[in-house]
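dude i think i finally got it to work??
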Amino acid sequence: MAALIAIATLRAIRVSPVFPTHAGLGFMVIMMNYPMTALPIPITIQTSAEAGHPLSDFQIKMIQGFAEAMARHNAVKNLTRIPLEDWDCRHFAESVLMLPFLHGVDVLDIGCGPGFPSFPLAAVRPDLNVTAIDSNKKMLDFLITQATENLEVVHGRMEDVGWTEMFTTVTGRAVAPLPIQLEISAKACAVGGYVIPFRTTHDVLEGDFVSALGLELEKVETRELPDGITRVFPMYKKVKPTPEEFPRQWAMIKKHPLG
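look at this
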């Protein structure tokens, strides 16, 4: 089996106290092992090129290596229910759909799971500083093994970490109903930055909850994947600071969602 071993020294990782084992450590990560036949990713290659970021051979192998490592972990850890043959479209290509919409270089992925869209974004745009946060340690136990120099992994919840106006783009896939996703996203977004969630055509994108969080819906972009799934990217500009009471604690958010 051919193998490419990349040695990456992690920057100091911002973590919550419940994930202390990797905090601030520089360590060596075997990032990727390639099978004899790597997972084909033609849709991702095309989608990234159409977004203005053609992939190099190294980036293609990097993404394929991530997929192979995830397949091994998924066999015992259940990281995703999407069949392997659909990963190219539903995980990697879908993640890079948002490349044209990114603002600035400080990107936050909320509810990153095993690394989407955070890992593809970091792989395709090495100039980005991507932070991936999730409360599911099982997912992050995998993602931390794939962390790159421009991808920081955080175990925690947005209502607990206390980040204020740190990121120029805040995003997330399949996190929660839209009012909840915006509530946990808004405070971390810098004024002048954008909250750009992955949403569907069924979502109601406007309401009083938007302005209550200091956001304003500027425009909406839609993109269709080859499997017929349409992804909607509402672009909420942060026009003023988010009030101090947001985000509320998770129990209150779920019991009394905005909107």
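The domain at 27-255 is CATH 3.40.50.150 (Rossmann fold).
im so relieved honestly
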